[in-house]
Specification:
The chain has 171 residues and is mainly alpha-helical. Among the domains are: 51 residues, no CATH class; 61 residues, no CATH class. The chain has five helices and two strands. The chain has a two-stranded antiparallel sheet. Helix 2 crosses helix 3.
């Protein structure tokens, strides 16, 4: 009993060797435990139960899910690469089209000269609209030009006020 007390003290200080720990486990597992050591029995029984239990890691539940996600991404990239390769192959293999045409009001027009004249007519129309839209701006330019003398008068007036503030004029 004295030896068991010393072993227990040594165990709780963390100074026991593996053979000493085996002796303690054997002591608590055989059933001949002194009543004053009964409080330690559940501790050593738990250690024995833990040895018999197989540990299941939470990682084992997560890893298959991660592998599934990786597989999904790999498949997605593979299928995307295949699709891109097919599109590129078709683009390279198809002969270039030399048809020049335009669709105007839902009608296909093959005559290039007519299409150019039509486009020029539409561009002239847009240009005329822009000129009409800029007319008020041109009028503002004229108004600014006519107001320049008033700006000179205002500047002169501001300078006179500044001079009055800096110099006291006696009447």
């Amino acid at each position: 009993m004295e030896m068991m007390n010393e072993l227990l003290e040594k165990y709780f200080r963390g100074e026991t060797s593996l053979p000493e720990e085996k002796e303690l486990k054997h002591y608590f597992s055989n059933g001949n435990v002194v009543p004053e050591h009964e409080i330690y029995r559940p501790l050593f029984e738990v250690f024995e139960l833990e040895l018999n239990d197989k540990a299941t890691s939470p990682l084992l539940n997560v890893i298959p899910k991660q592998r599934k996600i990786k597989q999904i991404w790999i498949k997605t990239f593979a299928f995307t690469g295949i699709a891109a390769s097919l599109v590129l192959l078709m683009w390279v293999q198809l002969p270039p089209t030399t048809d020049n045409y335009a669709v105007i009001n839902g009608t296909r027009i093959d005559n290039q000269e007519f299409v150019q004249r039509y486009a020029q007519k539409k561009m002239n129309y847009v240009n005329a609209m822009l000129k009409d839209g800029l007319k008020p701006m041109q009028r503002m330019k004229v108004v600014n030009h006519t107001l320049q003398p008033l700006n000179v008068i205002k500047e002169t007036h501001d300078k006179m006020i500044e001079i009055e503030k800096t110099h006291i004029i006696n009447n």
